[in-house]
Write a structure and sequence with these properties.
The chain is an alpha/beta fold. Helix content is 31%, strand content 17%. It has eleven helices and ten strands. The protein has helices at residues 15-18, 43-51, 78-81, 92-98, 105-111, 126-138, 152-161, 178-183, 198-206, 227-235, 252-255; strands spanning 27-31, 56-63, 69-71, 103-104, 117-120, 145-149, 166-170, 188-191, 210-213, 240-243. An eight-stranded parallel beta barrel has the order 1-2-5-6-7-8-9-10, surrounded by five helices. Helix 6 links the parallel strand 5 (117-120) and strand 6. Helix 6 runs parallel beside helix 7. The longest helix is centred in the middle third of the chain and has 13 residues, at 126-138. The radius of gyration is 17 Å and the shape is globular.
């Protein structure tokens, strides 16, 4: 890490997601920005993550009532702003009155220009996927994005919209799902602690896919937020980690751990 630019990872930012096992560098990804320090999915949080050494950042998407794509994890504003309003029931002007820090996806793409990002599509409908991926195409961002698909339906919707989109598979109910990941054309798999073992990771690598750790080895689903957890993940040969503390990217204990090539 050592504050090196993303361009040093490969010939272009697009290579960050396209050929994961060959890059030979452990990637630290800001989970919704840097939520240990700044409220998640806000411009300030993403800025903090990138300024503190993150190799990439991840966000979640929802649509407002007037069709504006926003960076938001939950379907409502209760947790982040204290209001129970569903984002799908209010327009962007109303949403910003309730939550002034709400970030539109267009603004997110602009502020992360030239950086790799993950767009987590969770349980998006096929129609929503079409809107999200289409927006990325229109704004010229498709080649620096990894779209996370939780189901084959989502993956198929991504692929129908873009033949070149990079897909990351995730199976929240457990299991690395290598065969399914290959069948949907994924190039990455998000792995949970149940799959943090060398045979599983090596099998994924041999199949040509990269791996991203979702949680601390000491938890079933809690994001890793300490250096010991990140080092343990890197030593397993996992290619990257989602963390609420992307500043750990610059910790010397982590930069000394290499990823097999």
């Amino acid at each position: 890490m050592n504050g090196a630019s993303t361009q040093s990872i490969g010939t272009s930012v697009a290579s960050f997601w396209s050929t994961p096992p060959k890059l030979g560098k452990f990637r630290v990804i800001g989970h919704r920005g840097a939520p240990e320090y700044v409220l998640e999915n806000t411009a300030a949080s993403f800025r903090h993550a990138l300024d503190s050494g993150a190799d990439a950042v991840e966000t979640d998407l929802h649509l407002t009532a007037d069709g504006t794509i926003v960076c938001l994890h939950d379907g409502d504003l209760l947790r982040v702003a204290g209001f129970p309003d569903a984002i799908a029931d209010i327009d962007i002007a109303q949403a910003r009155r309730l939550f002034p820090a709400l970030l539109t996806f267009n603004d997110f793409l602009e502020m992360t220009r030239g950086k790799p990002i993950i767009v987590d599509l969770k349980q998006a409908t096929a129609a929503e996927v079409d809107i999200y991926v289409g927006s990325c195409q229109a704004l010229g961002a498709i080649n620096r994005i990894l779209f996370t698909a939780y189901t084959t339906v989502i993956a198929d919707a991504i692929r129908r919209r873009s033949a070149s989109a990079s897909i990351g598979a995730f199976f929240p109910n457990g299991g690395a799902g290598l065969d399914v990941a290959l069948s949907i054309g994924a190039s990455w798999i998000r792995v949970l602690p149940a799959d943090y073992d060398r045979p599983t990771i090596d099998a994924i690598r041999r199949a040509g896919l990269g791996t991203i750790a979702v949680a601390s080895p000491r938890s079933s689903f809690q994001t890793a937020t300490d250096i010991e957890a990140l080092v343990a993940i890197a030593r397993l040969g996992i290619d990257g980690v989602l963390t609420d503390r992307p500043d750990l990217a610059r910790d010397q204990r982590l930069t000394s751990v290499g990823v097999p090539v």
